[in-house]
Write a structure and sequence with these properties.
- The structure is a single chain.
- Helix content is 85%, strand content 0%.
- By secondary structure, it is mainly α.
- It has one domain.
- Helix 3 runs antiparallel to helix 5 (70-102), helix 5 (70-102) runs antiparallel to helix 6 and helix 6 packs antiparallel against helix 7 (135-149).
- The chain is globular, with a radius of gyration of 19 Å.
Length: 210
Amino acid sequence: MTKKSFYFLVWAVIILINLYFIYNFPLKHFNEKEWSKPFGPLLIVHIVFGMIAILMGPFQFFPFVRKKYPYIHRFTGRVYLLSVLIAAIVATFLAINHNIILQRRVVFGTGLLGLAVAWFLTSGMAFWAIKTRNFVQHREWMVRSYVVTCGFTVYRILVVTLNSYVQFDYGKEMSGIMAWACWSVPLLIVEVFLQAKKINKGSFTSTAIR
């Protein structure tokens, strides 16, 4: 398998998993019962723009889209960043007022608040980088941003998988741990990968200079 084929295979798997997540979880919130809840409308707004971000994100990473259809790349990038901004603002409000203050689920709420902050920062850095035409940094920060975006998918996968094999109290230990782990662990792994590429490239450069 070539590097290019492997790249598209990985993205195909990511997209399919995200589509499965959207079909089985967020769409279930679109009902009258959910709208009638105190924070229901805000949750729907968060879900809608979160789903848009999940669906628009992959268009930022396909080289043929970026090179042959730059207008699609730019348009989807703007939609992605705007969706992240709206979803993150709502997520911050919900994490503080609904989860931490009202429900007193501090670990779970701060985990989601941390995700929202990471969403703000990674996406904001990606926007700043492209405004200064630093394309290398823009690509790296977009990778980090999309990893955080997929935190919702990772959360559901981890919770469903672990809950099948490990007997935790879902409402307390499991949800609290996963609220932190779903974005921080993938972000750490990706960061190691991004920095390893630079270290590896630097070693080749040093060897060539000598």
